[in-house]
TrEMBL record:
Belongs to the damage-control phosphatase family. Sugar phosphate phosphatase III subfamily. Subfamily III proteins have a conserved RTxK motif about 40-50 residues from the C-terminus; the threonine may be replaced by serine or cysteine. SUPFAM superfamilies: AF1104-like (SSF111321). Residues 27-427 form the Damage-control phosphatase ARMT1-like metal-binding domain. GO terms for cellular component: nucleus. Coiled coil: none annotated. Metal-dependent phosphatase that shows phosphatase activity against several substrates, including fructose-1-phosphate and fructose-6-phosphate. Its preference for fructose-1-phosphate, a strong glycating agent that causes DNA damage rather than a canonical yeast metabolite, suggests a damage-control function in hexose phosphate metabolism. Has also been shown to have O-methyltransferase activity that methylates glutamate residues of target proteins to form gamma-glutamyl methyl ester residues. Possibly methylates PCNA, suggesting it is involved in the DNA damage response. Keywords: Hydrolase, Manganese, Metal-binding, Methyltransferase, Nickel, S-adenosyl-L-methionine, Transferase. It comes from Oncorhynchus mykiss. It catalyses: beta-D-fructose 6-phosphate = dihydroxyacetone + D-glyceraldehyde 3-phosphate; L-glutamyl-[protein] + S-adenosyl-L-methionine = [protein]-L-glutamate 5-O-methyl ester + S-adenosyl-L-homocysteine; beta-D-fructose 1-phosphate + H2O = D-fructose + phosphate. This is Sugar phosphate phosphatase. It comes from the Eukaryota. Pfam families: ARMT1-like_dom (PF01937). One of its GO terms (molecular function) is protein carboxyl O-methyltransferase activity.
């Protein structure tokens, strides 16, 4: 008991919907049920498609899935106990063990339930239950309930995508003439484009359209003052210090891993950044990490990744399709690769990765730089806890550091560490919704070699 208390003092509690009126509470009470309703509606609207593909069996599967999801929605709304998963997938046992872990933390008195448990766990659990509902109802088990919203969001950002591809091709043509300083400036710009791309997620908008309309490069200077912590110089140093002479004496850059977040416009910004890193000699290889199941509405799956490259390639615009050709050849040559791992769709804080997914941790250790995109990754990096704003980022990571890493995140959850004295208080007075509006962002770097 004494040891438990000491631990609790070291680590603040998890954000949870049990705090009435909190962002977590409002998410669980309002946003998650809305997302579930939209999922049910999507499945219903696809009834004819299921009939055409699978006949009457498809229609029966549609009905059963809707039944499962309506029950899930009711469990959520009435704060019922969290149930074990029973779909026998590769991560089912881990999920059920995690439920036991949550139950031990809560003690025996109350069951683990939607409003009483950590928000991070509950929110991840909802998406995993959606997957279970689909999976248990063949023949529609492969259906991605969020696919329509993701493709729509890609097409709605078309002008912004075109302007970004045109920009990329412009300096790709002049790359050899760029000085080191100019290269660094371009790097900073494209890092920021990828950062702000994170505004376009479909979870914060409960599935409503949220695409990029304005030209991303032109908006950067106006957005600069909204970056609360900017460690991008350290990211640049991590990249340049990974450049080493290869066997042939030529300088060989390092490996960059990008832990992706959303499909649609954000993914395009990540691919543009990755393209720049390779063509500018700042990365020899980029490994993309995505989700193995549909997740938080807009997160990238393997299908989204390939689809986006194919769409870019097939575009009716010279520079956009040229960009797509380049991306496809990076994939073919193995310069780019896509990976998924069940851990990315588990509810764990990343400080648990070394113990709970040692294979993934070991893979990440091979990177010279890991970019973690988005809000959910930030929540998992910092454990989604009630940290004081001035706690250093390194400390909130609680020992997680497979390689130098950087979080590129727009703020959409009420957690933020690594601020200067007074910075949080000022923001609270100026703009009370600063942590959840997506208007502010951080570029936060941590290296395992730095003092902890
Ligand atoms: O796509 P992102 O940036 O991870 O954001 C996901 C969103 O979903 C949430 O988890 C809330 O539902 C927020 O943390 C965030 O707004
Ligand atoms: Mn997301």
């Amino acid at each position: 008991m004494a040891a438990n208390q000491a631990l609790r003092q070291l680590v603040p509690p998890s954000l949870s919907a049990k705090v009435e009126g909190s962002f977590a509470y409002l998410t669980v009470r309002d946003r998650l049920p809305t997302i579930l309703t939209r999922v049910i509606d999507t499945i219903h609207r696809n009834k004819n498609k299921f009939f055409e593909e699978f006949g009457e069996e498809g229609v029966q599967a549609e009905k059963r899935t809707i039944g499962f999801l309506s029950k899930l929605r009711n469990e959520l709304l009435t704060d019922k106990p969290v149930l074990v998963l029973c779909d026998g997938l590769e991560d089912t046992d881990s999920w059920n063990q995690y439920l036991q872990r949550q139950q031990r933390l809560l003690g025996e008195r109350d069951p683990v339930s939607w409003f009483k448990s950590p928000w991070l766990y509950i929110e991840c659990y909802m998406y995993r239950r959606i997957q279970e509902a689909i999976w248990l109802n063949p023949p529609i088990s492969d259906f991605d309930v969020f696919n329509e919203s993701k493709t729509q969001s890609f097409f709605e950002s078309q002008q912004a995508v075109i302007s970004l591809c045109t920009y990329l091709q412009g300096f790709n043509r002049n790359m050899d003439d760029l000085s080191e300083t100019q290269l660094m400036e371009q790097f900073h710009k494209l890092l920021q484009v990828s950062l702000w791309g994170n505004r376009c997620d479909l979870s914060i908008s409960a599935g409503m359209e949220n695409s990029q309309k304005a030209s991303p490069i032109d908006s950067l200077s106006d957005l600069k003052s909204f970056i609360l912590v900017d460690d991008s110089n350290m990211v640049w140093s991590a990249l340049t210090s990974a450049q080493r002479p290869g066997e042939d004496g030529k300088i060989t850059p390092g490996r960059v891993d990008i832990v992706l977040d959303n499909a649609g416009f954000e993914l395009v910004t990540d691919l543009v950044l990755a393209n720049f890193l390779v063509s500018a000699g700042l990365a020899r290889e980029v490994r993309f990490h995505g989700k193995s199941i549909p997740w938080f509405v807009s997160d990238v799956t393997s299908h989204d990744f390939q689809w986006t490259i194919r769409q870019t390639l097939a575009a009716n615009h010279k520079w956009m399709s040229k960009t797509g050709v380049q991306w496809q050849s990076y994939v073919r040559e193995g310069v780019w690769s896509y990976h998924d791992h069940p851990f990315w769709t588990m509810p764990h804080e990343y400080c648990d990765m070394a113990g709970d997914a040692p294979d993934l941790y070991a893979t990440l250790q091979g990177a010279d730089l890991i970019l973690f995109k988005g809000d959910l990754n930030y929540r998992k990096l910092t454990g989604d806890r009630e940290w004081d704003h001035m706690v250093p980022f390194d400390r909130a990571l609680r020992g997680f550091g497979p390689a130098p890493l950087c979080s590129l995140r727009t703020l959409k959850a009420n957690i933020q560490v690594g601020l200067q004295p007074g910075q949080g208080e000022n923001l609270n007075t100026q703009d009370p919704s600063w942590m959840t509006s997506g208007k502010y962002a951080v570029v936060q770097f941590s290296s395992p070699h730095r003092e902890q």
